[in-house]
Amino acid sequence: MSDQLLQRIFLEARTHNGWLAEPIDDATLRRLYEALRLGPTAANTVPARIVFVKSPEAKERLRPCLAPGNVEKTMSAPVTAIIAYDTRFHEKMPKLFPARPTMGETLSAMPPEQRDFFLLQNASLQAGYLILAARALGLDCGPMAGFDREKVDAAFLADVPWRSILLINLGHGDPEKLYPRNPRLDFEEACRIA
What we know:
Blueprint: H1 2-11, H2 26-36, E1 48-53, H3 56-62, H4 71-76, E2 79-86, H5 93-96, H6 103-108, H7 112-136, E3 140-144, H8 149-156, E4 162-171, H9 187-190
Antiparallel strand pairs: 1-2, 2-4, 3-4
């Protein structure tokens, strides 16, 4: 099973740009979150917040936020996950790290630049967990950064202290719309053993 899972999650999985017309139900999105939320983050901060955009009306609100090259593939995806981080993440720390009651205060006192990097780093890590969990559940993914963050935040996050960092299209990819796989670096080019 581990070889099959490795094949599904990494070796055979591809970044999809086209989608089959197969919906994703809310139960699958809940299952996806239940899996990804258990991945490790620094001090168990789990700062990622997700908006699953799937209704036609919500998709239309997303359309003007997208870079031109991302419109068609996003509008045809059954779901687009807006990955964001919670700028008030520290308020959840009593629940998330009960062994250290002052952890939230410590983290909220970080200098703004350091805190922004911390949030981006940990929410991005959780975005990776989402991709892995989605692939393990048999879904395909298309992550992208080609969107206007300010527009997404205004359209979807204006009532919460969340800031978008990434979009991930989710669904069952159309193999006819795959591009050839681009090369990757070999171990010797990308790694050192010290």
